[in-house]
């Protein structure tokens, strides 16, 4: 199948074409051609991010949310990002077993990706995968990512609603959560409420909201037992309420504008950096320049600016 053909099939809702185009983008093959050809055909997709420590139940929740969305006749895309997986396309075994019952459903598209060592924990291709799923016609796109350090924070750049999943008694008590993590949850989900300590974590969360500076939004707390579907309809409704609220007060557009800006800036950073690395300065010269800093002959800012100047001179003489 040639590229144009694949793109036409994607626009017509063909999941095989979507899978092939995602692989192509992960392999850095004709990325710009694909993205620019499909971008204008994005549908109105709502993006839900789910994050939290490993094992808190994110995949179980994803599975149950898929069921809820399917009951509402919504088309669903899922991107599961596994920072430990060096390869793409292969879900971790547990996820695969849990989610495979949706495999025959043509209105559900599930994809796992490795994060390929990207610092933030989210795969660099995430934005483009979201674009593909949107063109495919997904009403909702769920992004599941393991909360290791930066990736919790980074998911905000991609999602319209972020669920932060916590569990009782797992050590990630609210007090020990890293600074900045609590702010990213639009909805706090306390999973594994069949275990002791869910009230404690709930009251901790409520207390934290009272003392926090950011009282502009009262963030919902939903208690669930995901495998038993207890609290799942309530969680689903809370997501829909958050969506509606953001649509009504224009927050959604503000968030989406910020996301596009972010994407432009990160593309710029990546391409400027790789241009400079490929055309302006060698690794060895960088090492020599570092020596200059050590010898008090230069400083990092002067070096950076002189490299940019050199790259401009290069392109003028080209
Ligand atoms: N007791 C209990 N176990 C749960 C609950 N939700 C998920 N689990 C289990 O916790 C484990 C990790 O779940 P998983 O969804 O893979 O977590 P993830 O790593 O966050 O995606 C699995 O064995 C689940 O069956 C719950 O509400 N209660
Ligand atoms: Mg998982």
The radius of gyration over CA amounts to 22 Å
* Tally of strands: 7
Bound molecules: guanosine-5'-diphosphate, magnesium ion
How would you spell out the order of helices and strands?
A: HHHEHEHEHEHEEHEHHHH
Number of helices: 12
CATH class of the largest domain: Alpha Beta
Fraction of residues in helices?
40-55%
Keywords:
49% helix; binds magnesium ion; alpha/beta; binds guanosine-5'-diphosphate; Rossmann fold; 318 residues
Summary, kept brief:
With 318 residues, the chain is α/β, with parallel strands linked by helices. It is built from 12 helices and 7 strands. The chain is globular and about 65 Å long.
Describe this structure in words.
With 318 residues, this protein is of the alpha/beta class. It folds into two domains: 40-248, P-loop containing nucleotide triphosphate hydrolases (Rossmann fold), CATH 3.40.50.300; 263-317, no CATH class. The chain is 49% helix and 13% strand. The protein has twelve helices and seven strands. It has helices at 3-11, 15-26, 31-38, 58-71, 93-99, 126-136, 150-154, 198-211, 232-248, 251-279, 283-294, 300-317, and strands at residues 46-52, 76-82, 108-114, 140-146, 161-166, 187-190, 221-223.
């Amino acid at each position: 199948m040639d590229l144009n053909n694949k793109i036409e099939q994607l626009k017509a809702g063909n999941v095989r074409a979507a899978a092939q185009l995602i692989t192509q983008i992960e392999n850095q093959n004709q990325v710009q051609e694909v993205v620019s050809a499909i971008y204008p055909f994005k549908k109105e997709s709502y993006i839900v991010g789910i994050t939290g420590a490993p094992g808190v139940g994110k995949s179980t929740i994803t599975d149950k949310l898929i069921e809820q969305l399917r009951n509402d006749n919504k088309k669903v895309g899922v991107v599961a990002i596994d920072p430990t997986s060096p390869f793409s396309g292969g879900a971790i075994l547990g996820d695969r077993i849990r989610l495979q019952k949706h495999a025959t459903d043509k209105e559900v598209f599930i994809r796992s990706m490795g994060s390929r060592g990207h610092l933030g924990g989210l795969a660099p291709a995430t934005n483009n995968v979201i674009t593909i799923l949107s063109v495919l016609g997904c009403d909702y796109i769920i992004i599941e990512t393991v909360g290791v350090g930066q990736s919790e924070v980074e998911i905000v750049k991609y999602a319209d609603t972020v669920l932060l999943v916590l569990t009782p008694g797992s050590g990630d008590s609210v007090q020990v959560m890293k600074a900045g993590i609590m702010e990213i949850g639009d909805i706090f989900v306390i999973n594994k409420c069949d275990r002791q300590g869910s009230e404690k974590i709930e009251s901790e969360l409520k207390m934290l909201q009272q003392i926090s500076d950011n009282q502009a939004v009262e963030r919902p707390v939903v208690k669930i037992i995901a495998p038993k579907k207890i609290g799942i309809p309530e969680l689903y409704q809370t997501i829909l309420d958050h969506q509606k609220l953001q649509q009504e007060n224009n927050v959604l557009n503000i968030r989406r504008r910020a996301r596009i800006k972010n994407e432009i800036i990160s593309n710029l950073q990546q391409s400027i950096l790789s241009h400079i690395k490929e055309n302006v300065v060698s690794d060895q010269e960088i090492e020599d320049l570092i020596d200059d800093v050590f010898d008090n002959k230069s400083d990092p800012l002067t070096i950076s600016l002189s490299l940019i100047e050199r790259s401009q001179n290069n392109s003028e003489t080209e």
